[in-house]
Amino acid sequence: MRRIALAAAAAMLALTAVAAPVGAKTFGAVYVNDMVYRVFGNSANVPDGTGTDPFAKFTNSTNAAQNGVAEFAPGTGDSHGGRWAVYRATWTTGDPATLVTSWAALQQYVAGGQLSLVRDPAADFRCPVLGDPQPIS
Q1: Could you give the 3-state DSSP secondary structure of residue 109?
Q2: pLDDT band, residue 6 (cuts 50/70/90)
Q3: What is the SS3 assignment for 29?
Q4: Across 10-98, where does the E strand assignment appear?
Q5: d(Cα 137, Cα 95) in Å, to the nearest integer?
Q6: Element (H or E) spanning 105, and its range?
Q7: Which residues make beta-bridge pairs with 125?
């Protein structure tokens, strides 16, 4: 009987080891410099207003492909590992169907008065950006 219990426990452990990566949750993607990066959620505490890397979330985009836009990713600029300082990007006079895929483009729309960009320190969060970016298709 003990041998059966040990075999069952070993089988469950093996199944858990194989199934765990499949169960990992991918929370989406972010655009950086006209590339798309995968991102993972992380339960690390980020106190309000302590984010360091600029990240824009769109409030009224009508483009289903619009993800958040970050200024930095691993190996670019002054990345701090996905400790995001959140900004709310809202189309004002611009076309809300426009796909924005870089911080530079975002800043151009802001400078042209088409987008407003407002800091939202209460929304700061941590979400590491994974390497191996992909071109936007």
Answers
A1: helix
A2: very low
A3: strand
A4: 26-32, 35-40, 53-58, 68-70, 83-91
A5: 20
A6: helix 103-111
A7: 84
DSSP code, position 130: P
Amino acid type, 72: F
Q: Return the structure tokens found at 34.
A: 């006209």
Q: Model's pTM, two decimal places?
A: 0.77
Q: In whole angstroms, give the CA distance from residue 84 to residue 74.
A: 13
Are 62 and 96 in contact by the 8 Å Cβ rule? The answer is yes
Check whether 12 has a pLDDT greater than 60: no
For 14, phi then psi, to 5°, come to: -65, -40
pLDDT at position 10? 44
* Residue 88 β-bridge partners: 57, 118
At 135, is the secondary structure helix, strand, or coil?
strand
H/E element, 117 = strand 115-119
Structure tokens at 104: 């530079």
